[in-house]
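Database export, one record per block. Field names are fixed; values are copied verbatim from the stored entry.
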Amino acid sequence: MKHAFKFAVMVVAGLGALGLGGCVHFHDQPLSAERAGADFSARTLNDAELKDYLEANRVTGDWPRAAWDFNSLSLAAFYYQPSLDVARAKWAVATAGKTTAGERPNPTLSVSPAYNTTTTVPSPWIVTPSLDIPIETAGKRGYRIAQATQLSEVARLNIASVAWQVRSAVRRSLVNLDAAQAMENLLREQQKMQTENLRLLEQQLQAGAISPFELTQARVAADGTRLALHDAERQSAESRVQLAQAVGVPTHALDGVEFSFDSLRVMPAEVAPAEARRQALLNRADILSALAEYAASQSALQLEIAKQYPDIHLSPGYEYDQGDNKWSLGLSVTLPVFNHNQGAIAEAQARRTEAAAKFNALQAGVLAEIDLAVAGYRAAMQKQADADAMLANLQSQEKSARARLDAGDISKSELAALQLQFSAGALARQDALTQVRQAKGQLEDALQSPAEMLPSAERSPRVEQATALLSLRQTISLPHVKGGFDLMAVDLAGKRLFLNAEDNNTTEVIDLAGGKLAHTITDVTEPKWVVYRPELHRLYIANGNGNVRVLDSDTYATQRTIAFKEKANNLRFDAKTGELFIGVGKQFGAIGVVDTRKDVITAEITLANFPKQFEVEGNLIYVNVPEANHVAVVDRKKKAVVATWPVTAAKGNIPMGFDRTRHRLFIGCEPGKLAVLDSANGRQVAVLDIAPEPDGVHYDAERRLIYISCGDGSLDVVRQTDADHYEFAGRVSTAKGAATSLFVPELKQLFLAVPQREGQTAELRVYSVSPK
């Protein structure tokens, strides 16, 4: 009985540890209103990172900018505007929902120990540990994932909608500022004319040529102009505040800033042709979002229909019954006796009908909005044309009046009156111009065109800044390679790069100086990792069949084979001892040690499971063991694991980088986490969100940056502030599956392998890192 009870306790403890091993721990991120306010107050249009963001979106020129136009101010708004940060955060939440939707239900462990007081032989104890393993049926998980995917698309499209709102607010504020400043100038000119006119009228009154009433009328008009000027000055000040608000900066950030209004004054000759309207109806972000909402409602309905079919629960169990060992296997299902989920199905059907009605109403509203915007623009253009004609007529009259004044046919007061009419006409024309520009903006908003003026607003500007940290220098096409790649190595002196094309069963030799393929090594099987020994003219290539091929690096001929019983993967070389370390295993795990002076295996250090990437530092080897979700610390002298450090940030700890100066390990995990561990004790000091499917992690000691290549099609950059503090610095979009990478600090370059896929040719991309 003692052993049975102990066994039950061990089962419970073991399963509990298995469940808790991958738990995520809370990391406090305090939010301070005082600090946030100070950060907002410090925003400026001269920010160096804003400059990088503008350049990444093809807006270049002198810095600081001599004048900010509509396009550059819109980009500044995309950089600063908090409403876009909110929209991006909502998308992140919806994207995380896809992970939640894809999770499978956990099994339940229960233990019910009992004690029989009527007997003591052979034992009074009854111990019954059992498991409940739920198995979902009818494709419920797939429908959940489909619904979450569509809701994520809704959130993504909402970013585009918010971006249009931000752009519209910037344009509206800029148009109002232009109009207010123009009105100020015209009213000041009018005020000067009225002052001169009053002087002439006062002279005429003294001479008895006019009545006091006429002078009073002129003074009232002058007072009205003075009040109108104050109103224009107020509108100008308010427009500056509104523009600052639209951009997302404090008002004082616009002090001393010059604005260019030229792009706002360009009017299209043709107004919304039929094709433009059709494209708007098909491609507006809110239209596409409504379609995605409808698709989500379809998946929700499919899920509720699938719930009619009960899930299965397997219940394997063990019972120690007073000395007897009993095993059982139970199976249970929920019987659909009292209901067939009809209520939930009816609700889902109604929500789908509601989603369809919302889409139809939105589409009809969009069509009306476009027609209204077109009509408003045409009417405003006609009003401007009439104002132009009226002003031209007044200008002609003024010119004629000046000639008559010179001839003595009219008095100065009559010319002044005509000039005041011309000034009033100029004010009316300015009002018409403002209405045209506002109508043009409404038309662009209705059509959501021109779309090319909007940068990719999906990602945070901090993401776009990575283009200043990593710039694509060269692309080397490898059209003969099929499938994906594994790791690579570089020959600095010979300017060669050795790239393992594991699916193609080749190692490609790239001529870096010429930017082309130099040779293809074919005598390899699923090549995984490569080490180059320049002093020996050797290549060591780890293969999926367990062999490590040793090749002449000049002739590429195989010199010998070092055989392991299972897959050979990662390689690391210690130049001081001449030892080569190999990650070995598929069903088991070990670190193999090879003496490269003789090319013989000297040790195999057993691990809990197969290893992935690892780092060698002095007497220790830090090994990622993803199946165990820990880092194994291997003592080279003892040839044994001396510690295991759980990776609590997430699972799938495969890639690893190392800051040897500050003793920090950088570990990429799924579904998109970077964990930072202290290599002295395994303490987790930081966790950051990164893109999914990280596969390469490289530390740039000179720039204190971490480059992470991710299979979702991203190159992420993380900045190290100090040993324990890190911040996301940016992201460069690459290609799906492009996860294999190598950073070469001597060349200041990062190499990224892009796999061959449908519609995508294999290639090697070369990125230059930013100057220090």
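Remark 1: Residues 655 and 695 are 5 Å apart (CA to CA).
Remark 2: The mean pLDDT is 87.
End of record.
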